[in-house]
Every structure is written in structure tokens, then in C-alpha cells.
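Standup notes
- DV: blocked on the single-chain target, sequence here:
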Amino acid sequence: MSSFRQGRYSWLIKPIFYTIDLTVINVVAALSLFSQAFSLRFTVIISLGWVVTALISKFYEVHRYSSALRVYNLLVRQALFFSLLVFAYEGVFPQSNLNPVLTLRYIIFCFLFISLFKYLLFFLLKNYRAYLKGNTRRTIILGDSKEAKDLELFFKNNPDSGFINTKTVSFKKREKIDLNTLFSYIKAESVDEIYCSLSEIEAVDVKAITKFADNNLKVVKFVPEQNTVLNQDLKRDFYGMVPVLEFRTIPLDDSFNLALKRLFDIGFSLLVIVLILSWLTPLLALLIKIESRGPVFFSQLRKGYNYKSFTCFKFRSMVINDKANVIQVSKADQRITKLGKIMRQTSMDELPQFFNVLIGDMSVVGPRPHMLSHTEMYANKVDKFMVRHFVKPGITGLAQVSGYRGEVETDKDIIGRVKYDIFYIENWSIFLDLKIIIQTIIKAIKGDEKAY
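- DV (later): unblocked, structure below
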């Protein structure tokens, strides 16, 4: 299994817009327009209020297929929310003595600058995609319906959206279509997104295409007929006038959620490194060296986000052996040292992975990464196994606290693990992460029968 999603930098766009806008509302306030009321309290409340109102108004929900009109509508909506926020601040803190005229002028100047920057970056990105062919998505359209043709025309007539359609395949003569050949083409052409016309492709083919997409880290979307009644669980977007449905939505594809999780990872890993690893590492290093010959740390290549390899760190819990990267640890494994048994039962051997979290290879919570040999085996054997690589791997995960930790003894173990991992990916929240961390700590204290 060698397929992986192409690395993208689109996730940076939203944080850049947040940074620019927050800078504008605070710099303008700090200038003479609002200087008499500018304070740390004002900065904190207005900045937090901006973030909250932006989330409510979906101010940053501008996609590559969005129009300039949508940007205008978002600006108007956010201006109304922000105006209410600023005047509410005056109501809560009347001692600020805000002049209504200056307040109105402050709001107008803020949105003049914010509109300027938003449209400037909006059109710069469109020209970057249209003329420099950067930040593009390679697509394939499966089906030859009217809606599919309209979508193909949208891709062709809107190069600034960044879609490069490699091929459109008609399914009207299904007997002539070989899905395996089609899948080989998709991998060979590095296609990122597969668009299926629901009016032309049969359910059995949709199932096969979705399975292929999941196992090869491709995004699959559906093009319905105009009069189709849509399931409310499906995400719907419009590319021009063409409705497009997306079956799987991943919360961590959103830049705000991604940034929130990353900030949490950095903060939590620093706490563990400073408060625990700073004194525990030299102590364990001494005990590991006394008991057996070899390095203190054990490093192993594993597959992470986008199926890219990274070096995973652990405290060495076994004697040096040449099968550590091939054979999974089993119960009563003779390779485990006495100290290693204690470390594995309490999960102390995993603590160095907080350095992996700090440098960005892993997250505190996420699907557990496997050895390379096992990853290759499971990828070819277990349906939807590759979906786990849509997010960063974790030190702990929902599967681990749900009874699917440690050795994979039967197919049921790995299938159950994948099931919980996919649920986590599709239902992520910072509160779910906190819940999993608390459950992990409780299990480490109580002991886990599968921790060996």
C-alpha cells in the first residue's frame, strides 16, 4: 500500500485570515480612533468575541468554489454581529465612556480594512490557482449525466477554483467499465477527488468506489439529480449551480479545529515533558541500563498522517532482538524485561512519544500507529483501515480505551479497532479528547489486562 493524500497547505489559509482580522480590529482600536477606550480588557473581550461571532456567522467558510458574492454576504453578516458585540461591550462596561460616533467610525474602518484584505487574498488565491497552478485538486468524474456535464463545465470554465479534471467516464454502458482498471488510472494520475453521478452509477458500484477511496485516501463526492431529496446527514455544497454531496466529513479538516487540537497537543505535551519526563527519564534510563544492555530509547518507523513515515519513540522495554520490527509483543513474551513489564502495564514506555507530539508527528489522542509490516498487511486485508491516516496518530485513542489495546490476536481485534478509530475521526471534539485522556489515566492506574 503506497497511496497517500497529497500534502496540502490549504489549512493555513483560515489561520492567516484570523490573524489578519484580529490584528486589524486591535490595531485600529489602538490608534486615535479609539485610544481612550483601548485596554487589555477590550483586546481580550473583543478578540474572543470576534472568534465566537465568526464561528456563528461562518465568516471563514470560504472555499475554492465560493463566489465573490458569498464573500460579500459573509462580510455583511459578520459586520452586523461585530457591531452588536462592540455596542454590547459599551453596555456591559459603561465606564469605558465610548463615544457612539467614534464607535461607529471604528466599526466602519475595521470592515474597510478587513474587506480589503479579504478580497485581496481571495483574488490572489484564485489567480494563484488559475495561472500558477498551485493549490490544485486533481479530479475524475464518474458518470455522464446532465449534472456531471455541468460539473465538468464548471471545472473547465473556472480554473481559479483549482480543480483539474483528468477524465470523465460514462457509465451508461456499464458492461464496458472495468473498475479495477479505473482504480489503477486514479492511482497512476494521482487523482485527489472522485465525483460520482448518482443518477447513473448503481449502488453496488458506489459501494466499490467508496471502499476504494477509503482504502487509498481519496475523497469521494456525489453529484445528485437536481430534484433529489437529500439526506440531512450529507454535507451539501454548490459548485456554481451544481449540487455536490460529501458522505464523510472530518472535523479536523477544519483549520480552526486543527489549530485548537494542535495548541492542546503542544500545551499538554509540554506539561508532561516538564513535570514528568524531566525527572522520570534519568531514573528510568539508569534502571534500564542496569537491567540489560542496549539503548535507553527504542525507535521504530511507523505510518502517520497522509500515510507518511515517522520515527516513533518509546522507552526500551525488551532485550535487544532482531525481531522487534516484525513480531508484535504477545502475552508472556520472553523478550520483555522485568522493568519493561512494569513500564508496559502502566504505559510508561509510551511517554517519550510526547516528544513526537511536540514536534508534530503525533497527537495526544488519535488512532494508534502500527509497525510498518503490520500496517501494510492490515491495509490490504481490513476494509477502511486506511481511513485512520486522515488524521495524526495518537499516544492513546478511543479504540484503546474501548478494549482494543495491545496485541491483535484475531481479525475481530483489528476490525473493532478500525471501527472505533473511524468513529473518533468523524466525531472528533476537544471534549472527546479530554474524555479519552481521563479514561486512559484511569486504566493506567487500575491496570489493563491487555497491557503487556
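- Follow-up: The radius of gyration is 26 Å.
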